[in-house]
Write a structure and sequence with these properties.
This protein is of the alpha/beta class and about 210 residues long. The chain has 6 helices and 7 strands, in the order H-E-H-E-H-E-E-H-E-H-E-H-E. The longest helix has 14 residues. It is globular, with a radius of gyration of 16 Å. It binds S-adenosylmethionine. S-adenosylmethionine binds next to strand 2 and helix 6.
Length: about 210
């Protein structure tokens, strides 16, 4: 999907600092202080235009949500969604999630969501996949014991790669489904990509995993 460049996006992000966290590395260990309520923290990497984080924050007021997105042109739409919904339990970060350990303390996060992450299908790009072992090391560090990684994708190759990567890392697969929408799971909140692919009739794969 081609996203139009929005030269005003960076200024817009800076102006909306009640939603966008402008110095995320300074919040390490203190993320809950940014929210009205101190409660569970969930992190979404690659938030896109924010449909998921907005829906999840509405549906789960007992959790604080943080969305990281490296593309300013889509992040501005996520900011608008959180603003319009007047949600106090969702904050956004304009950053490339390279090493989460610089941004979050050990055990600070309860759940990590990876939604329709870029699959990087070429073998030479394996290290860029968000489920490559170096990313799993980071997730293990910032996630609490028994904290979950919940991943959804339309991409069969990336899904299979992820299942192998999780297993080789010694993670426990709690749930694997090859057709999420068949389950009619009422707690599921659709992302933009999920809506697009399922409207085309493609199955949505999901797995839930923990570090044992
Ligand atoms: N999650 C959304 C959805 O399901 O509709 C967007 C999916 S889109 C394919 C992947 C998004 O992840 C893009 O917006 C991209 O900019 C973002 N992304 C990929 N790698 C990232 C990283 N390392 N840090 C932050 N954002 C990232």
């Amino acid at each position: 999907m081609r996203i139009r460049n929005k030269p005003w996006a960076e200024d817009y992000i800076k102006k909306n600092d009640s939603i966008a966290v402008l110095n995320p590395y300074e919040e390490k260990g203190n993320w809950n202080q940014l929210f009205t309520e101190k409660q569970k923290l969930a992190l979404e990497i690659g938030t896109g235009k924010g449909q998921f984080i907005e829906g999840m924050a509405k549906k789960n007021p007992e959790t604080n949500f943080i969305g990281i997105e490296r593309d300013k042109n889509v992040l501005v739409s996520a900011i608008d969604k959180i603003k319009e919904s007047e949600l106090s339990n969702a904050r956004l970060v304009y950053e490339n999630a390279r090493d989460l350990r610089d941004m979050f303390a050990r055990d600070e996060i309860d759940t990590i969501y990876l939604n329709f992450s870029d699959p990087w299908p070429k073998t030479r790009h394996e290290k860029r996949r968000l489920t490559y072992k170096t990313f799993l090391e980071q997730y293990q560090n910032v996630l609490k014991d028994q904290g979950k990684i919940i991943l959804k994708t339309d991409n069969r190759g990336f899904f299979e790669y992820t299942l192998v990567s999780f297993s080789q890392f010694g993670m426990k697969l709690e749930d694997v489904t090859l057709d999420l929408h068949e389950l009619e799971d009422e707690s599921n909140v659709m992302t933009e990509y999920e809506e697009k692919f399922s409207n085309k009739g493609q199955p949505i794969y999901r797995c839930i995993a923990t570090f044992e």
